[in-house]
Specification:
Elements lengths: L1 H22 E15 L4 E13 L6 E16 L4 E17 L6 E21 L3 E23 L4 E10 L6 E11 L1
Antiparallel strand pairs: 1-2, 1-8, 2-3, 3-4, 4-5, 5-6, 6-7, 7-8
Length: 183
Amino acid sequence: MHKALRLLFVALLLLVSTALARAGTLSGVDAMTSTVMQQHQSSFSGLGLRVRLQTAQIVDGFDFLPYVEYWRTSTTVEAFGITAARKDATLGADVRYSFRRSGWRPYVGGGYGVHFLSSEVKVDQPSLGSRHEHDSVIRGGLSALGGAAFPLTSHLDNFIELKYHHLPGMSQLKISFGIGWGL
């Protein structure tokens, strides 16, 4: 069931992205690294990639940003033979408005993402026996973002961004740093 939902979402995201790309233009690609702070967890690192699309139907200054983000964290307690891992692969889309000004460009936006979350615990202790527990869940959630882009050249800029993903019981706050290539 989960695989069917994943395939359906990926197909829908590709269809929407293709339709928007035909209606408008690809205006850039952004790659980023993030410090992720998930509710009730310590911070860890993640990666992300997104494309920037501008369409004639959207007001000037707005970008449509389909994205994929991923993070994974694991912990091992060797003395007890316990390993725990959590990961999140997110597919989503944001709409962002960039304020017009010379030099650096502040922006705000929001969107929706589908998070494919999984947790895994392995216990390999002779006195406790060997167990392997795995749990996966798919959750959708709204996101809000704000940041600023700093041009380096006419086509290259770097940016810093703060993004909040609202997932009940698993909300995430991400501080991202990245580089963008504008077309």
